[in-house]
Amino acid sequence: MPYLHFLQGEGPRYPKNGIKAMIGGWGNPFDQHNMSNRLKERATSGELEFILTTDFQMSTGCVWSDVVLPVPSWYEKHDLTATILFPYLQLQQPAIKPLFESRSELWIFRELAKRINPAFAKNFFPELDEDEAALKVIDMLLEKGGFETEGITLAMLQKGPVRLHSAAPGDRQVPFHEQVHHRRPFPPPSYPAPVKATAQFLRSGRIEFYKDEDLCLSEGEQLPVHKETFAETEYKVNPAARDKYRLHYVTKNSLYRVHSTHSNNSILLELQDNKPKVFLNRQDALQRGVKDGDLVQIFNDRGQTRAHAVVDPGCSAGTAIFEEGRCSRYLAEEGYNALTFPWIKPLHEIYFVPGIWSPTTVWNECLVDVRRMSV
User: Fold this and answer.
1) Which of 172, 134, 174, 173 minimizes the C-alpha distance to 154?
2) Closest by alpha carbon to 134, among 71, 77, 191, 88?
């Protein structure tokens, strides 16, 4: 299927009658997601009949929601934290009790499950309070986490972060160590999906250089191949974009927030001069009559947003780099993802394992231009 299939409202395994409700938390998709335009259209048209958000701050997602349920921040509840960026497990422990009317997500969804079907309550430890239930869940995760969490206990985590186990010498994190030294098949186990659920990705059981798949063959990608950027996305939808929009729109994380979390914190905003910024190459700025500090509009056929120009010699020519995460209400115009689009690469639709492997989107595959705004 071509990239254009998503423009026509189609997609992999899309429900026959559409999606009528959305429940989310912390993700703030009405600003953060590259489908933010589509979400707002569906919410405004009534296609999304119900939107529920759990959050601890008034995010854009909360503003667009029918119901907002307040939840505690990290320091008001128990949780287990792990990321792919470092090999440690860390236990979040409440320093204070949840403030005001906030309740943990576990408590909220336990109560929702009970109202949908009272029989569901048994899966949420109804005999325990929410803190005890959270610790019980963490105990279960540690017990069933596989080799990586073997021997790690709640008591150990209560004393501090604990390093996950690795098959490499000294518990070090060495990519493909098991495959090279112990001839273990690839891919490695992925939790919680069993190996047989992900083994279909590599039918040979080894890292594959050649993909003997019908879709790979039809797309000419059975072997690694170079394709021109935007040829199957922006240029296919609008051939005029090649000359009309000459800047690659790239978003980066800010030093002062985690995505959009804390984007309404006055102290952190002050560190950023209370201004959204777009970084431009000196030559690109000169061609557009833009000087350092000018208020500019970033735009394309899908939308626009505004920021203050930072003329940066370290910025590559042909790029406009925007610090992502600002809530749209601080931009005096649309959110930064109003310019993006969730292109789906067809090859990503070959396999599907819920929550583990699913069609992904081509982030930052987007063209824009910048113009100076009058004062």
Assistant:
1) 134
2) 77
Max CA distance (Å), the chain:
68
Residues 4-42 pLDDT 10s:
343 343 444 567 888 899 998 888 999 888 888 889 999
Does residue 183 register a pLDDT over 70?
yes
Burial letters 138-150, b for 16+ CB under 10 A, else e: beebbeebeebbe
Position 200 confidence tier, pLDDT thresholds 50, 70, 90 = confident
Give the span between the Cα atoms of 103 and 248, in whole angstroms: 42
DSSP 3-state assignment of 36? helix
Which strand ranges, in their side-by-side order, compose the sheet holding 50-55? 21-25, 50-55, 67-70
- Give the per-residue pLDDT at 350: 75
Read off the pLDDT of each residue in 287-313 and give the average, rounded to a whole number: 94
DSSP class per residue in 315-362 = SPTTEEEEETT--GGGTTSS-GGGS----B-GGGGS--BTTTB---B-
Predicted local distance difference test score (pLDDT) of residue 96:
95
Alpha helices in the chain (DSSP H): 29-32, 36-45, 60-63, 105-116, 130-144, 154-157, 177-181, 195-198, 214-218, 234-237, 241-244, 266-271, 282-287
Pairing of strands 247-252, 162-163: unpaired
- 348: amino acid identity, one letter: H
Q: Read off the tokens for 300.
A: 């394309």
- Does position 205 have pLDDT exceeding 80, yes or no? no
- What fold does the segment set 234-372 form as a domain? Barwin-like endoglucanases (2.40.40)
Per DSSP, helices labelled H in 94-227 are 105-116, 130-144, 154-157, 177-181, 195-198, 214-218
Q: What is the predicted pLDDT for the residue at 206? A: 77
Which fold does the domain 7-163 belong to in CATH?
Rossmann fold (3.40.50)
Confidence of residue 192 (pLDDT cuts 50, 70, 90): low
Nearby residues of 277 by Cβ (< 8 Å), 6 or more positions away: 307, 308, 309, 310, 322, 323
Q: How far is CA 269 from the centre of its chain?
A: 22
CA pair distance 144, 83, nearest whole angstrom: 18
Q: Residues with Cβ < 8 Å from 85, sequence gap 6 or more? A: none
**Token match 């098991």: residue?**
178
Domain ranges of the chain: 7-163, 169-218, 234-372
Average pLDDT over every residue of 106-115: 90
